[in-house]
Amino acid sequence: MASVRAASRLLSKRALTSPKSAPAAALQGSRNFHFSIYGKKNNAKVSSDISTQYPVVDHEFDAVVVGAGGAGLRAAFGLSEAGFNTACVTKLFPTRSHTVAAQGGINAALGNMEEDDWRWHFYDTVKGSDWLGDQDAIHYMTEQAPAAVVELENFGMPFSRTEDGKIYQRAFGGQSLKYGKGGQAHRCCCVADRTGHSLLHTLYGRSLRYDTSYFVEYFALDLLMENGECKGVIALCMEDGSIHRFRAQNTVIATGGYGRTYFSCTSAHTSTGDGNAMVTRAGLPCQDLEFVQFHPTGIYGAGCLITEGCRGEGGILINSEGERFMERYAPNAKDLASRDVVSRSMTIEIREGRGVGPDKDHVYLQLHHLPPQQLATRLPGISETAMIFAGVDVTKEPIPVLPTVHYNMGGVPTNFKGQVITHTNGEDKVVPGLYACGEAACASVHGANRLGANSLLDLVVFGRACALTIAENHKPGEKLSPLAPSAGEESVANLDKVRFADGSLRTSEIRLNMQKTMQNHAAVFRTGSVLKEGCEKMDAIYQTMNDIKTFDRGIVWNTDLVETLELQNLMLNAVQTINAAEQRKESRGAHAREDFKDRLDEYDYSKPIQGQEKKPFEQHWRKHTMSYVDSKTGKVTLEYRPVIDSSLDEQDCAHVPPAIRSY
Length: 663
What we know:
nine-stranded mixed β-sheet; four-stranded antiparallel β-sheet; 17 helices
């Protein structure tokens, strides 16, 4: 063993000092870094335009995708398949992406368990979004859903099966038949309770058929923007500290959510909202960031996700009196009401003293009334997770659970084609060269609240949509428009500043302050005074970023540096979230205000509309929040954009007019 270690040390030394390991040009004036130039067709060139301290490598591609989760992989191989020279830049190895943690399934109206129709799925998604979802995008997603699932199956995704060999579909929250009148729908296709894992590995395996250039463990720093047009991204290679500029006609952001702005969440530590922050720094808006989904069942204390599939398979939530309390809050859907409804009901039970445990601060999810065989085949991962993180044998005792931050409905605003948009003078305008998909995007298919199992659908449908839109408007091998030699200079300056930062506060201290503030001031229930105090606290915490201290001055695998860059990104997401929440004076979907308990639409939909006067745009809240941040000062500016209420084809699928939302 010792000899192996010695040999490996020798090899690593040799790799770092060998003059052959990097071109001579790359080594001059660059502190003798060893770094590698990846890229097909010899399209990488070493440049000294923006830094003499850091080696800078320029790459040219037809398209670059940032992120390699479900959405990023689907976009990347969709582009490669269409003949585009594509780069996929990712800070993690693709199969380590957070898509891997999705458990429940993927919704599609296949009709394997009972008669189903994608229009019913469309209705449920619009209702779930609390009428803040854009109905053209919801139409597109739900209509494409069956084909998307069949495509995944053709790629080799090992779906659970029914007795007669069809894809098994389980019940899931907020899913109904016949426009809410036909009872519970079974629409969620799953691979036991490890659907995300299976999806990610299937997509990654598929992507290897194509000639995509993967840049793994490259941390994207910023978009390269010129005159309002996106011309690529600049990234840091974590392995050796080299800087890479990826020039491309088309850039797709698929960087996932920002759950780590909160203290307790189901997200991986890498869910830091990098794409949203890159867009914010580019002076573009983010949309609807105040809508943060709390998943009803995170393990108490650990925050690990326990899938909604447990309730889909027949699990029930019980309080300290052993009562199935959801029957009181959602008489029809019960435990399978939409997530915001269930999370609020649990919080009310705990507040009213019916919580369990020594501090009466959580509730139980009971599964032990289900047959052990069903638990073993349909929920094997949950049985294991509950044992590891809660010490519970699900066949004999209940799991302690608590609502936990899980998903961000908001993100980079896009249309249903995946093109990033801004809203100026009452019109949506496309940002040339920039696309977004997955949790990082907000095509607003989820509106104010996402339905369970619509997220994996969102990934594959809009990842594919980005590739199709690019293929429709561009050809492989198009000449790239010129880029200013100094593009990306600010990003490198910021990197250098952070690397040598010598203030008095550690990254981890500032991050914890931010997470605690968000957890306490922008939780399941929100109040004006608490939100206002939260905004002031977040502003003060934002200013402490100038007093940050990093310890690692190196450049090879400097995790201290990367965590600090991630904190900068989290901070931009957090200030937008809490400021947008403070401004929104209503309750809608996941945003529940105790001082404004009702939804404020253009009409009062609890009464007939005839004879009512329509409220002007400024006086109602059925509109999208568009937030901008000055990244120097942390000052947030909010604007608003109308919701799209028409479907893509009113003949084929009529839009759903707003109504009172009850389950």
